[in-house]
Design goal:
With 182 residues, the protein is mainly α. It is built from seven helices and no strands. The radius of gyration is 20 Å and the shape is elongated. The two termini are 32 Å apart. The mean pLDDT is 88. One of its GO terms (cellular component) is membrane.
Length: 182
């Protein structure tokens, strides 16, 4: 129960903040992932007698799951074209499934109750996640600047123009008015 509660609290906080503050979705995903790393560190480094600290670490380690809605919103906002959007959504789902299949294999029963290999693998995966999210943020920001230089800054589009772009099935590289959502 406490793990699910922590996930719900972080889900509401992170998605609420990302909805209210522009250009903060990826940053909120980085914050969420960093909190999960802190949780894994608590589980790994606290001694066995500190059950409350380890439970706190377990709850914080699980908040990574709150990134799923943000990652899906990044796909819908940052990928144009029906085929490309469907492909990206399928790839994200496949990666999620593969991670859920492979992840538990790192937790060896012979290492009970510490599971050091699993905790280290979790921290490595989360740290790589932070690295790649930073890379994604930088890439999107640089691409937005490049598009602004090529086509000028964005103007306010009418609803009909937005709908025309959306229904054209052009990709994000083909639509001059497209900018990545950070």
């Amino acid at each position: 129960m406490p793990i699910g509660g922590a996930q719900v609290v972080f889900l509401l906080l992170i998605t609420g903040f990302a909805s209210l503050v522009p250009k903060s979705r990826i940053i909120m995903m980085i914050v969420n992932t960093a909190v999960s790393v802190i949780g894994m560190l608590l589980i790994w480094k606290l001694d066995g007698n500190n059950q409350a600290g380890k439970m706190t670490g377990l709850c914080l380690g699980g908040v990574f799951a709150a990134n799923i809605p943000l990652s899906l919103s990044l796909i819908s906002s940052n990928v144009a074209g029906f085929t490309k959007k469907s492909t990206f959504s399928a790839l994200i789902f496949a990666a999620y499934c593969i991670g859920n299949i492979a992840g538990p294999r790192f937790f060896n029963p012979s290492e009970e109750p510490l599971y050091s290999t699993g905790i280290k693998a979790s921290m490595a995966g989360l740290t790589f996640g932070i690295f790649f999210l930073v890379c994604l943020y930088i890439f999107f920001a640089l691409e937005n600047r490049r598009w602004d230089r090529l086509y000028g800054s964005l103007r306010v589009m009418t609803e009909a123009e937005e709908l025309e772009d959306e229904l054209s099935n052009k990709t994000d590289h083909e639509i001059e008015s497209f900018r990545y959502v950070l």
